[in-house]
Amino acid sequence: MFKNYLQTALRSLWKHRTATFINALGLTIGLTACLLIALFIRYQLSFDRFQRNGDRIARVIMEYRFDGGNSSGKGNFTSVRVAPVFRRTFPEVESATIMFSSPRVVRVGERMFSEKRFLYADSSFFTLFSFPLLRGDPRTALTASHDVVLTASAARRYFGEQDPLGQTLKVGNDSLPYRVTAVMQDFPANSQIQGELIASFASLGLTPDYEDTYWDANYTTYLLLKDRASIARLQAKLPAFMKKEMQGSGATINFELEPFDRIHLYSPYDSFVPNSSITYIYILGAVALFILVIACSTYINLSTARSLERAREVGVRKVIGAGRSQLFWQFMGESFLLCLLAVLLSLAAAALLLPAFNRLTGESLDRAGLFSPLFLLGTLVAAALVSLLAGSYPALVLTAFQPVRVLKGSFKNTGSGQGLRRSLIVFQFGISVFLIISTLIVRQQLAYIQHAKLGYDREHVLVLPMDDRMLGNLPVIKETFRRDPDVLAVSRCVRSPVEGGGGYSMRTPDMPENRLIAVTANPVDEDYLPATGLQLVAGGNFTRQDILDVTGDSTDKYIYHFILNESAARQLGWSPQQAIGRELYMGQRHGYVRGVVKDYHFESLHSPIKPYVLFPELWGRELLVKLSGQHMARTIGFLQQQWKTLVPHRPFEYHFMDEDYDRLYQAELRLGQVMDLFAGLAVVLACLGLFGLSAYSAQQRLKEVGIRRVLGASVGQILVALSRDFLRLTLLAILLALPLAWWATSRWLEDFAYRARISWLVYAGAALVTLILAMGTVSLRALRAARANPVKSLRTE
User: Fold this and answer.
1) What's the angle, vertex CA 392, arms to CA 386 and CA 394, rounded to 5?
2) Which DSSP symbol is given to 755?
3) What predicted TM-score, i.e. pTM, was given to this entire model?
4) pLDDT digits (tens, 9 = 90+) for 5-20
5) Residue 620 and residue 564: Cα distance in Å, rounded?
6) By three-state DSSP, how is residue 760 classified?
7) CA 108 to chain CA centroid, nearest Å
8) Beta bridge partners of 177
9) Are 216 and 210 in contact (CB under 8 A)?
10) CA atoms within 13 A on the CB side of 422
11) What is the b/e burial string over 309-344, where b = at least 16 CB atoms within 10 angstroms of the residue's CB?
């Protein structure tokens, strides 16, 4: 029986090669898209699942507010005090670790390496996290100052085949010797903690007074709880505990606990790699489901379009004794066979397209994931469901034909299933309109992000690393760089405008000492404004003397000058003009307002602009080099040549400031690219489905078309007659999709404090594009029917 079904199915598929090709193509496209999306979602959901203690680790989030102030700060930072205090105070805490990440220059012999992912962690790191060591003891690897653990790849890079244990690295500006105590496996790609080296936290040389304050919050704290339920219990205790701790300090600090296994997809605060978003996982999952449904609908429409061609076959089989169940499984066999072919093709296509998909998403998905037993099993189950859902309706339609009417030539199939088929077309094009609108609005918001007036100039600004050894020679470095006519300005700073700033407090002399305003601030020099294009609205820029005025070690002995943004001046109750010359305290720094700059976006457009202060200091972490944009290769070559002479202790490396800006919207940019691709696929599949139904309709109306031609109707009139119903279906799909698309995209845009104004033209354009595609698709089949010889069509009756 099975062999007979198989032979019959193969003969039928081969006989109707064109329909088989279109069906296989539609299912293959749909399944390939779903496989790639499923692989991406599976990878994102797998983050940190290898951590044995992942369900009882929590990251500590700090939130602070100064009494009487309207602004606050919040982020994944804490002081070093949190871990030991929580460990001693709360029985729920089993262990804790403190981490810090900072780029470092590493020297091995005469070779230099710029390590951007250099981590510091205390000795309990390997107690909390499941990162196995290949060599060394996890209990002692990070106990002593200047101990360092290498990843396997870093060990090979530094020492080749030599035994790295006991070897010495020279780290940082001072080339301090670090002893290699262990070698660990490379961090898995799906780990939110990433690095090449982990040095002992004691290597930072923090003095004991760091443990006496909650304010020096530059570190990341993780807690290992007794069990997952302890996270909620500890969270309930923290407000009262911190209220007692901060009593009389003039500030409020509280801590939130983030479950470690939810950070990557749910937290607004990045870990050691950028987070993803569960919202985008849901969006991509919905797109995959939509594409799969459209592919199934396309199969149904193309199969029912061929129903009249197979009516005589069904009639003959029933006459010679075939039962309806036998015929049903015969047609289902064809469906299973076609789906199996589509699965094999889609697996091959997904494997071939995976490198391009990785470039699109910025991930490193492995082909091995496609062919893992669990993923293959899921793929086959999904294909079986697709086969059952897509094949059952055509099989039921075909097996319901009445043999007497078919063989007499009086069979008509005009009423059977019309509602379902039309509903499928409405559903397909409704999804297509929804995806087109969503894609256009995502693109419009991304264009707004790319071209928004940020308040600073991010174009043609090189960002170079800086360290303390460069400070003494900095005037020479800046002067040498400026010899190139295409170098417009060189500035020392701690952060560029894209990178935000650190948390500080400010107040005026007439404000009580315990009434402070939280503010973001950035230490800079006198060339920062020319290098970044920040616009003064009142007062003036820093002078060289302002920098020289703060050359000591104690901040309370010198007169500072400050440049505020408009929001900071407004927070203090001043207009920009009123702020000039006013006295101000920022922490222990006492001084006067030198100028006010126009508000600028020092955080992403997700957040509103907050108070911001620039102030002079002698130290910095970055050099900003503003270029003219002309002769870029020559200018960068000149800078590199001078760097080797002036800064021989570290390699020349740079990036552009606009790259930092793009990284702020990495998730949105990837979403836009993915939506472009899969929205296009959805439209193609919907058009295939519409082609099937238009073919079915034209077949049913062959006699009507012939009569119209005989009576003198033109090809255009026949096209209108055949397309009228499809035009109504498409318009209905548009009317249903427009409000849903408006609601969904409005919810997405709410996540941005600053967003593009969405014009009605977006919705009108999407509707027009859909109409053109739908009518173009219908016209292809209708035109063929309209040009057919009416004599032949009338003879078929």
Assistant:
1) 115
2) -
3) 0.82
4) 556 556 665 665 666 7
5) 19
6) helix
7) 36
8) 170
9) yes
10) 16
11) ebbebbbebbeeeeeeeebbbbbbbbbbbbbebbbe
